Amino acid sequence: MGLDLPAPAPASDDPFEGLRAVAALPFERARSMPPAVYTSPAFHAAEQRGIFAQDWICVGRAGQLARPGDYLTAEIAGQPVIVLRDGEGAIRALSNVCLHRMSVLLEGAGNTRSIVCPYHAWTYNLDGSLRGAPIMSDNLDFCRDQRLPQLRAEVWQGWIMVTLNPDAPPVAERLARLEPMIAPFGLADYTELFHETHRWDTNWKVLCENFMESYHLPACHAGTIGGVTEIDGHFFTEDEEAFNLHYLTKDPSFVLGNAHPDNTRLTGEWRGRTAIVAVYPSLLITATPGYFWYLSLLPHGTGQVDITFGGGLAPEFVGAPEARESFAKLHALLTEVNREDRGCTERVFRGLNAPLAKAGHLSRLERPLYDFAQFLAARLAPGPARG
């Protein structure tokens, strides 16, 4: 006899109800979120409306936009966005949709003196104001005094944050409780040395959860950082509304993970401390005394995620004679770590789609996943208080 597999989950199975049930549990009884939270198109649509269209989303580091005219592009909750350094030196976010026939204007990243629509050559200044519109003078209703819609952009700890929500609290206000927990690093002064984009075949929340917890390090990262990281017995935040964080200690032999001898800013435990930070919804940061790296995630449907991946060195390593060697080692290490994470997270998503998939219990080392579920439930599936 073959395995008697259950029928596929009926359409009435409700991921919102499943999330409410998980969020209502006390941490001592915590479970993973149910598979439908990751695989349901209806849940994905609700995330776009209720989270990505409402929150601050990271699009990169301010150092990427060093000169006037430097720009990058992103798509947030279906809205194409240009983020650029304008002629006055300010970072500005604009709608990346032409005011004429609604073509997307710019793609990728680069430098430009003006924004020219590739469809009919309508041209905009770097502040979004319309500069030129060929052969439009015969239209009696046409007005040259137009500009691309402006979006809010702020820089926090060196990261550029953009929101579609005009009423969102400022980033610094939203993350005021996080600031002192990472302030000793001085992350705004770290130098980004590489910046890449990727698309993986997994759900964005699977990758978020993977980054948030260090329980997986010994197994998933056995070939890289698993053996030089102590994963147990360290501080975890609890019940924070905008982020979660935990600290790790790196082995002193892992030179890049510890403070450079010239670093006089960090003392005591901070000289070997690593902070793993998740800024909700999808900015994921590893900060160490020697280097940093980050992922910023945007969902591409339920089964793919678009990733901005960047990293670099602390000022003391950037300025040291061995800087080139340090960067080469860092990039090679992080590329391999990402390769390992991709394998782990894509396997999880395959498993989530299996007929016999069922949410399991969480380890105490997975406290960040419990708090992430609380964030998602508060936004998308509010329900009774935890039991």
Automatic annotation (TrEMBL):
**Gene3D superfamilies of this UniProt entry?**
Naphthalene 1,2-dioxygenase Alpha Subunit, Chain A, domain 1, Rieske [2Fe-2S] iron-sulphur domain
List the protein's name: Rieske 2Fe-2S domain-containing protein
- What PANTHER family does the record tag this protein with? CHOLINE MONOOXYGENASE, CHLOROPLASTIC (PTHR43756:SF5)
Which superkingdom is the protein from?
A: Bacteria
Reply yes or no: does the keyword Iron-sulfur apply.
yes
Keywords recorded for this protein, A-Z = 2Fe-2S, Iron, Iron-sulfur, Metal-binding, Oxidoreductase
Q: Which cofactor does it need?
A: Fe cation
Q: What does UniProt list as this organism's lineage? A: Bacteria, Pseudomonadati, Pseudomonadota, Alphaproteobacteria, Rhodobacterales
Q: Give a yes or no for keyword Metal-binding in this entry.
A: yes
Looking up InterPro entries in the UniProt record yields:
Rieske_2Fe-2S, Rieske_2Fe-2S_sf, Ring_hydroxy_dOase_asu_C_dom, Rng_hydr_dOase-A
- Cite the Pfam families for this sequence: Rieske, Ring_hydroxyl_A
